[in-house]
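Protocol check, entry for the methods section draft. Step 1: assemble the input record (protein sequence plus ligand SMILES). Step 2: submit for complex structure prediction. Step 3: store the C-alpha cells unaltered in the notebook. Ligand used here: retinal. Step 1 record:
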Amino acid sequence: MEVVVLITGCSSGIGLRLAVQLASDPLKRFHVIATMRNLSKKGKLEEAAGATLNKTLHIAQLDVCYDESVTQCLSSIQAGRVDIVVNNAGVGKIGPVESLSIEEMKTIFETNLFGVVRMIKALLPDMKKRQSGHIVVMSSVIGLQGVVFNDVYAASKFAIEGFCESLAVQLLKFNIYVSMIEPGPVNTEFEMKLMEEVSQSEFPGADPVTVQYFKDVYLPASHDIFMTMGQTPDAIAQVFMISMERPVFRYQTNVLYTPLIAMKYADNTGNLSVRTFYNLLFNHGTMFKISLTLLRIITCNCFRSGEISPN
Ligand SMILES: NC(=O)C1=CN([C@@H]2O[C@H](COP(=O)(O)OP(=O)(O)OC[C@H]3O[C@@H](n4cnc5c(N)ncnc54)[C@H](OP(=O)(O)O)[C@@H]3O)[C@@H](O)[C@H]2O)C=CC1
Ligand SMILES: CC1=C(/C=C/C(C)=C/C=C/C(C)=C/C=O)C(C)(C)CCC1
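Step 3, stored output:
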C-alpha cells in the first residue's frame, strides 16, 4: 500500500523540493499531497513535478492558519488517511524587536506555532485510531539556539520544539513518531522575503544605534552565513527521506552548526553561547572570517556539500 504524505507550504523552497523528490520515487511508494495556501502560485511546482503531476503528486489548497481550510483539505483526500504529515509551512521575521508590533509577532506564531498545532490536532484522532503515523516538523537551528535580531522567529520555533518534545512521549504509546528537522540557513526564497520586508521598513520605535547594528553589522554577516553555510532545499529533503526509515526525534541537517549548539550544553550558565555569538557578530571582519575558516577545518570542509550529521 502506498504511503500518503501531506506536505504544507509547497509553493516554493523546501516543501516544493521535498514534494518533487517523494513523488519521483522510482518505486512509486508515495502518494504526495502537496499543499499551498495560494493556488495561483502552483505553476513552479507543476513545472518541477513534470510527469508525476496528478499521478504520484497532487496539489491541494491548505492554509495552516484556518480551521476550515485544513478540514476541507483533509476531507478531500481520496485515500481517507494521512500516513506522514510534513509541517513545512513557515515564515521568518528579523529586525529590532522595538520596531515590531505585537500584532506582527502574533502572525509569526499563527503560522509557525499554531499552524503546526492545528494540523497535528486535526490528524491525531485518526492516527491514534490506526496506531500509526509520522509527524514531521520543519523546525530550525533557531529553535535550539537563539540568533540575534531573530528574537520572534526564534521564540516561535522554540515554542514548537517544546510542544513537540512533550507530545512525542505520549504519541510513542500509539506508535506515532514525531521528528523535528532543524536546518541552518537554506538557500530558498526565505532570505529574499526577509530582505524585501526589511528594505521596506523604517524601523519605527527603534533607536538609531540599534538600527545601525542591524543594518550594518547583522545583515551583511547573515548574508555571509547564507552564502557560506547555506544548504540546498534538496539536501534538506534528503534528510527527510532518511528520517522515514527509522524515525528519531531530531535531525540537525548542518554539521557546521553542531559546535555552535553544543556550547549551550557545555556551559549551563549560558555565558559561553552568549559571549561567543557576541564576539562572532560584533567582531565581524577578521574574527568572523577566522571563525568560519576554523569551522571549515573542524567539520572537514563540508561547506555547501549538503552533507548531513548522522544522529
Ligand atoms: N530557508 C531557511 O534558511 C530555513 C528555513 N526553515 C524552515 O523551513 C520551512 C520552509 O521554508 P523555506 O522553504 O526555506 O522558505 P520559503 O519561503 O521558500 O517557503 C515557505 C513556504 O511556506 C508557505 N506558507 C507561509 N505561510 C503559510 C500558511 N499560513 N499556510 C500555508 N503555507 C504557508 C509559503 O507560502 P507562500 O508562497 O504563499 O508564502 C511557502 O510555500 C519554514 O518552516 C522555515 O521556517 C528552517 C531553517 C532554515
Ligand atoms: C551563526 C552566526 C550568525 C547568523 C546566523 C544566521 C543568520 C542563521 C540563520 C539561520 C536560519 C535562517 C534559520 C532558519 O530557520 C551571526 C549572528 C550572523 C553571527 C554569528 C554566527
